[in-house]
Specification:
Blueprint: E1 3-7, E2 12-17, H1 22-31, E3 38-42, H2 48-59, E4 63-68, E5 78-83, E6 91-92, H3 94-97, H4 107-114, E7 116-120, H5 133-141, E8 145-149, E9 152-156, E10 165-167, H6 173-183, E11 189-193, H7 199-210, E12 214-216, E13 222-226, E14 234-237, H8 242-255, E15 257-262, H9 270-279, E16 282-286, E17 289-294, E18 305-306, H10 318-325, E19 331-335, H11 345-351, E20 355-359, E21 362-366, E22 375-377, H12 381-391, E23 397-401, H13 404-407, H14 413-418, E24 423-427
Parallel strand pairs: 2-15, 3-14, 6-7, 10-11, 18-19, 22-23
Antiparallel strand pairs: 1-23, 1-24, 3-5, 4-5, 7-9, 8-9, 11-13, 12-13, 15-17, 16-17, 19-21, 20-21
Helix pairs in contact: 1-2, 1-7, 4-6, 5-6, 6-7, 8-10, 8-12, 10-12
Bound molecules: uridine-diphosphate-N-acetylglucosamine (UD1).
Amino acid sequence: MDSIAVRGNGPLHGDIPVSGAKNSAIKLMAASILTDQPLRLTNMPRLADTKFLGQLLRQFGVQVIESDGAAEAGVNGQQTLFHAAEITSTFAPYDLVRQMRASFNVLGPLLARTGHAKVSLPGGCTIGARPVDLHLDALSRLGAVIELEEGYVSAVAPKGLKGAEIEFPFVSVGATEHTLMAAVLAEGTTVLRRAAREPEIGDLVRCLTAMGAKIEGVDTDVLTITGVSSLSGADWAVIPDRIEMGSYACAAAMAGGEVRLTNARADLIQALTDKMVQAGVEVTPTDDGVVVKRDPAVRLRAVDVATEVYPGFATDLQAQFMTLMTTAEGESVIHENIFENRFMHAPELGRLGADISVHAGEARVRGVDGLKGAPVMATDLRASVSLVIAGLVAEGETTIGRVYHLDRGFERLEEKLGRCGAQIRRIHGPPVESPADEH
Ligand code: UD1
């Protein structure tokens, strides 16, 4: 099990290229099941999660070929070709699905393409109960016959999927994406109301459209899908990872200095940068990202945040912002509205000297003068990066254990921060099989 050691080492200075979005890439990869033609994804992040999903897709008979092409403006050279010429299996076993929750979303595409699938339920997760009832209700509305048996979902659509009007009871990113992928090949029209509007859904809609799908309402909460009988392949560049971008923006704000985030889009993290500006950070949008600047001699001000669905403040940036608030002047109240039990980073930050109390969905962070390095444990993907950010200013060394969480969503983190002056290194340990969690 690897760990990461960080030493408080003063301000950061330099450029950080933002990778393609994990949360977009894994849905686009699942969409490759929908066509017998090749789907070539560029700006692909190389992460534990994308590697893992690639393995699952191979089990279904999908050819997965990674290569390094030429970098273009805003797009790195990493690409992967997915070719599902023939689907040879529609079974996703528990051992694989439990390792990565989002892999449950292969159910809809398998069903739409072949008329049947058996996929394990994703099971528990460290950031609260995360059911899939909305996914299953929506697939049933499209005509799937669903049975739950011994932890598996068996779904068949003997007469093919049929378009339907579906109003989600509340906004769910996963259920919106999943239903969308099933509906593009359904017969007739599907209307999805109260659809999520996260940029990764926009990316999926645009890629599906490039593959020949007929979808109206991109980036709105009503998606109207006119089913087509088949889709073609496409070349598609994955959008920048707004969570990675926001995490490095928090890192620069925490350590001080001046960091330019490139290969990105300022609008994707507007809710975060609005709060950062209120706290006293200088944020300047550029053509391909933002510059984050902060005088380390001037203390930040405490600011309250509440996580919301997009375009609100992202739950995936809550831990990083909490870290930023640990040394700000005053008290910050942080409301987590998307997931219960998503403050597991708070006690770990406490080990570094932060003063945080948590009651139900609310955390109160009273700014302290400084943090002190200590051994801490990563509890989930976004929590683990928040501990790295804290380590950038903590006196002495902070060692973060269970780094496999981090490797699921951050590409070459040590290299990217190290180039800006951070003292950060990986300590290699024996390999570990990661438990179920997502983010
Ligand atoms: C969530 C985040 C998303 C983030 C992603 C990956 C939101 C709204 N969602 O998406 O921003 O990018 O994690 O880190 O911010 N729920 C049900 N039944 C269902 C599906 C969901 O009750 O069938 C509940 C969940 O428990 C949760 C809420 O709905 O409380 C939103 O979940 P959802 O958006 O589906 O989660 P993810 O797709 O994982």
